[in-house]
Amino acid sequence: MPISLWLSLAAVCTLGAMSPGPSLALVLRHTLGGGRAPGVVAGLSHALGVGLYALLTVWGLGALIVRFPMLFQAITWAGAAYLAWLGLQALRAGRVGALNAATVTTTPGQAAREGMLVALGNPKLILFFIALLSQFVTPEMSLGARALIVLTAMIIDGGWYVLVAVSLSHSRVLPWLRARAHWINRATGVLLLALALRVAAGPLA
């Protein structure tokens, strides 16, 4: 793959990773609830889900969705339901008070599971890879070039969310966030419910 094409791919993946949404809310919640380790684990497991979608894309996910539109509709509704569930959980956490180690905790195992599920249940990622990442795939592309696309998407996504978790868990930042976590939970819950409604209403723009 030419370096100019790879730089374009990296830029697209970076913009996709940095866009606000349920993935950022997830890493924030696990960092608040358990500190740096669960936040980092959530980011890395999310990157594995991103890598799976990237792998499916280079294998022809776009063609599969076009051929079987009901499959995409089923994935969309499942993703909307999961986003709504996460939103309700966040609102319930907001009512019980600040999220801190003494009340609501999170573990690396929970972070790993939810990080993967949020990635796999987010229709925005499916649309992102079909509409954008698939543009970098050609029928004659070598196996090495396809592997580079998958690794680029995974590393950029995981690197961004690890950076977010490490920054949020800084000794001066985390206490400030924990003191206001009940408001963060409420805002996150509203955001997730709004995203669920938007996904259920139709394809994301």
TrEMBL record:
Places the protein is found: Cell membrane
UniProt membrane topology term: Multi-pass membrane protein
Transmembrane segments: 41-64, 71-91, 111-133, 145-163, 183-201
Pfam family, one: LysE
GO cellular component: plasma membrane
Keywords: Cell membrane, Membrane, Transmembrane, Transmembrane helix
A molecular-function term among this protein's GO annotations: amino acid transmembrane transporter activity
Membrane keyword on record: yes
Principal cellular location given in the protein's record: membrane
PANTHER family linked to this entry: AMINO ACID EFFLUX PERMEASE RHTB FAMILY, ARGININE EXPORTER PROTEIN ARGO
Name of protein: Threonine/homoserine/homoserine lactone efflux protein
